[in-house]
């Protein structure tokens, strides 16, 4: 019941014209940046850039002092007061006719098989041409749901299965199932190096790291718990084919964890410290990131209980052609 009330509160905040209330920082959130705290805890339906603008425009107080620096650190027992007037003009997101591979569709949810080079939701540098914009075109009523009903994301160049809710009730139930880890998400990946164990668990906390150029995730004992299970499918000369199960769902979790154990995903442009990118075939050298121009990661399986009908659902997506081609190349290397 608490989880349902939590999401109902978020939805209420999403629809309010004036947001005015206060909250106390708990021990678990101490040390976070103010903008990160507000984005992760209270305003999940607003973009980080919107929240930063609220702070810069003097809408937030900490212990009765106006704070206009988004990166301000918060501490235990800080009182944060929020007084924001939401513009009456709602952002009219574009509805765009972008093809989606829909593999399941009923009155309450749909499952899509996302292609590579496709961002899920508008953000900095990607104002449109996303899954979100396509959903607004194909299902205009999704404009009334938070994030057009998108339950979880995939990175731009990760392919595979995603869940979209079509009603508010199914959205709430699916978000609760995700939070309770009752949605099983499995992936396939091609990684650098030879995996020693047939199956294993990677259990390292993850947090966001900010620098001047971008945001990336790092392993840090102060981060959030992150658990990844993997199973060895096949070994090549210098690479391994894995089946991966997410036990938690942190941003870039699989990519960060595999880099940390020195088995970076082939083609990953960010988490690549242990990549083996050069292969030799017929006395010639080739670059794998020229053969596969993205990370070799595919969301292959989803298992969960239908949010309304309460029966089990199981969806599978085969490897896309570019990853199949990569495997065919690796098979030839002796």
Could you explain how this protein is built, in words?
- This protein has 334 residues and is of the alpha+beta class.
- The protein has three domains: 2-85, RNA-binding S4 domain (Structural Genomics Hypothetical 15.5 Kd Protein In mrcA-pckA Intergenic Region, Chain A, Roll), CATH 3.10.290.10; 102-176, Pseudouridine synthase (2-Layer Sandwich); 184-332, Pseudouridine synthase (2-Layer Sandwich), CATH 3.30.2350.
- The chain is 23% helix and 30% strand.
- It has eight helices and 17 strands.
- The chain has helices at 2-15, 34-42, 48-56, 131-138, 168-179, 253-260, 288-291, 321-332, and strands spanning 18-24, 60-62, 65-66, 79-85, 102-105, 109-114, 159-165, 184-192, 199-203, 206-210, 215-219, 227-235, 239-246, 278-281, 284-287, 297-305, 312-316.
- Strands 5, 6, 7, 8, 9, 12, 13, 16 and 17 form a nine-stranded mixed sheet that branches. A four-stranded antiparallel sheet has the order 1-4-2-3, with no helix packed on it. Strands 10-11 form a two-stranded antiparallel sheet.
- A hairpin with a 3-residue loop joins strand 5 (102-105) and strand 6.
- Helix 1 packs across helix 5 (168-179) and helix 2 packs across helix 3 (48-56).
- The longest helix has 14 residues, at 2-15.
- The model has no long low-confidence stretch (mean pLDDT 88).
């Amino acid at each position: 019941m608490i989880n349902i009330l939590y999401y109902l509160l978020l939805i209420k905040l999403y629809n309010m014209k004036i947001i005015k209330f206060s909250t106390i920082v708990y021990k678990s959130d101490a040390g976070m940046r103010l903008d990160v705290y507000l984005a992760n805890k209270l305003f999940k339906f607003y973009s980080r850039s919107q929240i930063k603008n609220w702070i810069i425009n003097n809408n937030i107080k900490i212990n009765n002092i106006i704070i206009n620096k988004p990166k301000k650190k918060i501490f235990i027992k800080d009182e944060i007061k929020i007084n924001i007037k939401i513009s009456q003009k709602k952002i009219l997101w574009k509805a765009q006719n972008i093809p989606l591979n829909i593999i399941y569709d009923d009155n309450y949810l749909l499952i899509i098989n996302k292609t590579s080079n496709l961002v899920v939701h508008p953000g900095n540098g990607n104002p449109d041409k996303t899954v979100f914009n396509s959903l607004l075109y194909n299902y205009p009523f999704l404009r009334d749901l938070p994030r057009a009903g998108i339950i979880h994301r995939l990175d731009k160049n990760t392919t595979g299965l995603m869940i979209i809710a079509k009603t508010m009730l199914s959205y709430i139930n699916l978000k609760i199932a995700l939070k309770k880890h009752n949605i099983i998400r499995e992936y396939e990946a091609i990684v650098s190096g030879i995996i020693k164990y047939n199956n294993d668990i990677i259990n390292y906390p993850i947090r966001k790291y900010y620098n001047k150029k971008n945001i990336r995730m790092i392993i840090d004992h102060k981060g959030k718990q992150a658990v990844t299970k993997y199973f060895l499918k096949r070994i090549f000369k210098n690479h391994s084919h894995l089946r991966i199960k997410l036990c938690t769902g942190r941003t870039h979790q699989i990519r960060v964890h595999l880099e940390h154990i020195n088995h970076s995903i082939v083609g990953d442009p960010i988490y690549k410290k242990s990549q083996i990118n050069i292969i030799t075939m017929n006395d010639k050298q080739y670059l794998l990131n020229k053969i596969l121009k993205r990370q070799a990661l595919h969301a292959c399986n989803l298992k969960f209980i239908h949010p309304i009908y309460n029966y089990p659902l199981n969806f599978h997506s085969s490897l896309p052609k570019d990853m199949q081609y990569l495997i065919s190349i690796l098979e030839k290397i002796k």
